[in-house]
Amino acid sequence: MWKPGSLIAALLALSPAVGVLPPMNAHAGEAPTPREVQVRVERGYNPARIEVREGERVRLTFLRTEYTPCTKEVVFPTLGIREELPPHQPVTVELPPQKVGEVEFHCGMKMSRGKVVVTPHAHEAH
Question: Residue 2: in which H helix or E strand, if any?
Fold first, then answer.
């Protein structure tokens, strides 16, 4: 025979195990939102130099406002990324977190060039 409230107590005791209630720290382990950078593609890349911090996630949105065949794609050779850039349609490229250094990108004909410069984290004073 069930006592009043015993079903509720049983459900509350089981809820974390069966996922009925979300954990209190559900957002604690999530990565920060990627930084968004707009890159205009017209006679080159603007900006052509993008500075980010080591390990930072970056989302680049390319907007090609010209019709020259040279800039119809963007290539990140060291990352194995190649994306078509249709005129007047934003194309987003999300870069994985990078180590200190430079990640170059260029058009399909290697005439227009840009780079993502990855800098070390600044040491915080205690």
Answer: none
Distance between CA atoms of residues 25 and 81, nearest Å: 35
Pull the structure tokens for residue 30. Answer: 């999530």
Q: Where are the beta strands (DSSP E) in 22-100?
A: 35-41, 45-46, 49-53, 58-64, 73-76, 81-84, 91-95
pLDDT in tens, the chain (126 residues): 444 544 444 433 443 433 333 334 344 555 678 899 999 999 999 999 999 999 999 999 999 999 999 999 999 999 999 999 999 999 999 999 999 999 999 999 999 999 999 999 775 444
Half-sphere exposure of residue 6, counting CA atoms within 13 Å on the CB side?
4
